[in-house]
Amino acid sequence: MIEVFKTNIDNGERAQCLIEKIHVGFPCYQANFDTEDCDRILRIKSISEEINVLAIIELLRQAGCTAEVLPDELHDTCSQLQSGVTLG
Fold it and tell me: What is the pTM (predicted TM-score) of this model?
């Protein structure tokens, strides 16, 4: 299972710190940030259990950050716009 979150994380060092917190709190998750993406996305993958979306959002909130689940179609549109693909 993969969940994608829109965040306000634009700093690589802060992103790395949050990834470490996620890995400590949720050892079955693999997390990474794309701070260059327009939505500053956080991707979390788990092969052994369902991702606890509310717990991830709360972990980021406690760190002074914002996060919300990013619907697949919204992120696809943003990625296409960044790559210069015309939607029509």
Answer: 0.79
